[in-house]
Specification:
The structure holds 2 protein chains of 2 kinds. Chain A is α+β, with helices and mostly antiparallel strands. Chain A contains 17 helices and 11 strands. The chains are: A alpha+beta, B alpha/beta. Chains A and B meet through helix 1, helix 13, helix 14 and helix 17 of A and helix 2 and helix 3 of B.
Chain lengths: 430, 231
């Protein structure tokens, strides 16, 4: 009966309660939508980093990350791959050569990291191939069926993930292509020091150009077939500088790393958070900052609720005196006022969360396109200029808990004032 | 048998900022079961203060109030509230119903505080509203009831907890003659038939006219205490 009474009390002064509820609704919506934008950005960045850049786990020689010398190869990389693929939660693993080189075009040169990969196996640990605008996929999307048209308008401009038959194919990023003025079939030369210490170089033809939301990655990373690179580097096709592991179940990263470390104690086993500390830090900080944003919004709203609840108590002094007189103990009076405040806050919060859930869902499907305003800046930092707001249900629960705490905190002082009422004095008030 | 014994009751209001005021100055009184008693006196005579102390709403400066042998001054604050809930019914001048609850819910509310089961309290609340002649207004909120009807709901509410006695502070002050007459008839009938003890504080001659005992208070003291069994 007390909860029912508290609920009915809220609607005594409809306008005042609706103003508080509206403030709470908009406040919660503002906080949740802002949080959803940041969460969407961060999730997208993490997903891109995991699926197209570093995967979940990488294994190297302990000295390789600090000093990526060509001679610091892994012992028995094939064995490591087989071991990793046998671990629970692992989707696939592959080994790569990874060499820091100079890349030269007829127009310019740049420093890059070249990966020697098995293109088919790479598809199991990285979705980078989906970012190469394969001419046939694009033709299908554009509903072009005429081979002549495809050859004329698409083949040269899009390329594929090692789909052609030319010698020494190379896939490069779009930013690098622009910098070196390269297009499909352009020739580039890679120059580096081979494993035997001699300066070596080889020419490659651009077979595909990938496009990510991370300009720095596009500019710094190129991909060639492993045997092509191994022969140039005076290494064998079995040699590898790193093993990359992609997980089906990301929750098992920790246990997989422990197993690998136990099996290969002399190797450096790192997860994506160690490989990309900036992304990991922002991702971890995000939840905290989202909660801080909500706390600040709720604290601001809380002062308004304190004011409202003080009015509620002042207006009902006589009635509260009567309730105490007829036997409602002070704890119940206190709880009734607290409950009134909590219900008032929750009503606004539920409305705010409902609106947020709908709006976030709509924009999650459509995206918020800021390419016209912020593409360069955002992609320079690895973030997409098209944002897809996203928020987990857990966060809604956290916010609901914060709202309850706000309701309690905001009404504690007014409820305490009610506790201090002397029923005889209260009954005398007009 | 006495249900209330008042021994040398004194109440002095002293807020330490102004001159102390003696509201009750050494009152000794007893009240028996089934009394229909009126406390009268001019404004400021101390009758409301006396009623408040009888109801445990105010503490005496000295002296004792024993209700059914229980010394209220020996009880802790929350025990006094619990004691009030189980033993004392209140009817206030301004009705003081909960505006968001219906007449039925207002009567039921105190039984909810007592922890009575839903079915029991619903049945008793209905019975009481029938007793005060509001069987057709049970689901009306106080705002939709006349002053007299609201005061009848207040009487039903006061009866709901099955108290030992009911304290009524100027219950007819806000009512027109007809409503006041109806209310007094109901209370008189409850007193006759159900043996409910009523103690009024009033200026209203109509209440005094129906009382079996009239206690006159002046300057915080009992000036006269007369029985009118023929009323």
């Amino acid at each position: 009966m007390i909860p029912s009474l508290s609920w009915k009390n809220i609607w005594r002064n409809k306008v005042r309660s609706l103003v508080v509820i509206a403030a709470m609704t908009f406040g919660i919506f503002g906080g949740l939508f802002t949080s959803a934008i940041y969460k969407g950005m961060s999730d997208r960045r993490v997903k891109e980093a995991l699926t197209k850049e570093v995967a979940h786990i990488q294994i190297h020689d302990p000295k390789f990350i600090e000093n990526p010398e060509i001679g610091l190869t892994l012992p028995d990389p094939g064995g490591i791959v087989r071991f990793a693929e046998g671990l629970p939660g692992v989707k696939a693993a592959t080994d790569r050569l990874k060499i820091v080189t100079m890349i030269n075009s007829s127009a310019a040169s740049s420093g890059v990291t070249v990966y020697g990969i098995d293109p088919d196996k790479e598809k199991e640990v990285s979705e980078l191939y989906t970012s190469v605008y394969d001419s046939l996929i694009l033709a299908d999307k554009l509903k072009l069926t005429d081979p002549a048209l495809i050859g004329t308008y698409l083949k040269d401009s899009t390329g594929s993930w090692f789909g052609g038959s030319q010698r020494n194919p190379i896939v490069i990023g779009e930013t690098l292509a622009r910098k070196l003025k390269l297009k499909i079939n352009s020739k580039v030369v890679l120059t580096f020091q081979s494993a035997d210490g001699s300066l070596t170089g080889g020419s490659y033809r651009v077979c595909g150009i990938y496009r990510l939301e991370n300009n720095a990655f596009e500019e710094m990373n190129v991909y060639v077939r492993k045997p092509d690179l191994a022969s140039l580097a005076a290494l064998t096709s079995e040699d590898a500088h790193e093993v990359t592991i992609f997980m089906n179940d990301p929750k098992k990263v920790g246990s997989a790393m422990e197993s690998i470390r136990a099996e290969y104690p002399d190797l450096d086993v790192m997860d994506w958070k160690t490989l990309l500390p900036d992304v990991a830090m922002l991702n971890d900080l995000l939840v905290v900052s989202m909660i801080v944003i909500m706390v600040i919004i709720l604290a601001a709203l809380g002062f308004g609720i304190v004011n409202t609840m003080l009015m509620v108590v002042l207006e009902r002094v006589k009635e509260l005196g009567m309730l105490i007189a007829v036997g409602m103990n002070k704890l119940r009076v206190f709880n009734m006022i607290i409950l009134e405040s909590v219900l008032l806050c929750l009503t606004g919060a539920i409305a705010g969360m409902g609106i947020s859930a709908v709006v976030i869902e709509i924009f999650n499907k459509q995206g918020i396109d800021l390419t016209a305003y912020a593409q360069k800046g955002m992609e320079a930092w690895g973030y997409s200029a098209v944002m897809y707001p996203n928020l987990s249900w857990n966060f809604y629960l956290i916010v609901a808990a914060l709202v309850v705490i706000t309701g309690i905190a905001a009404s504690a002082y007014p409820a305490w004032k009610a506790l201090k009422l002397n029923p005889a004095d209260a009954l005398r008030t007009e | 048998m006495n249900i209330i014994e008042i021994n040398n009751l004194v109440k002095i209001y002293d807020d330490r900022k102004s001159v102390p005021v003696t509201a009750i100055n050494g009152i000794d009184l007893n009240f028996k079961e089934s009394e229909f008693t009126t406390i009268v006196g001019p404004s400021g005579s101390g009758k409301t203060t006396l009623l408040n102390m009888l109801g445990g709403l105010d503490e005496p400066t000295s002296g004792k109030i024993l209700i059914d042998g229980v010394d209220l001054s020996q009880l802790k604050s929350r025990e006094v509230i619990d004691f009030r809930m189980r033993n004392i019914g209140f009817v206030f001048q301004a009705y003081n119903l909960i505006p968001v609850l219906t007449a039925l819910e207002n009567v039921e509310f105190i039984m909810h505080l007592q922890g009575k089961p839903k079915a029991e309290r619903l049945q008793r609340a209905k019975d009481l509203l029938v007793q005060v002649g509001l069987e057709d207004r049970m689901n009306a909120r106080p705002g939709k009831l006349s002053g007299g009807q609201q005061q009848r709901v207040a009487v039903a509410r006061a009866l709901a907890s099955k108290p030992k006695f009911i304290l009524a502070d100027e219950p007819t002050a806000n009512l027109d003659s007809k409503s006041a007459e109806t209310l007094l008839d109901i209370m008189e009938r409850l007193n006759h038939e159900e043996k409910i003890t009523f103690i009024f504080s009033t200026h209203d001659a109509r209440v005094v006219a129906k009382a079996h005992r009239v206690i006159t208070v002046e300057d915080g003291q009992v000036k006269s205490d007369e029985d009118y069994p023929e009323h």
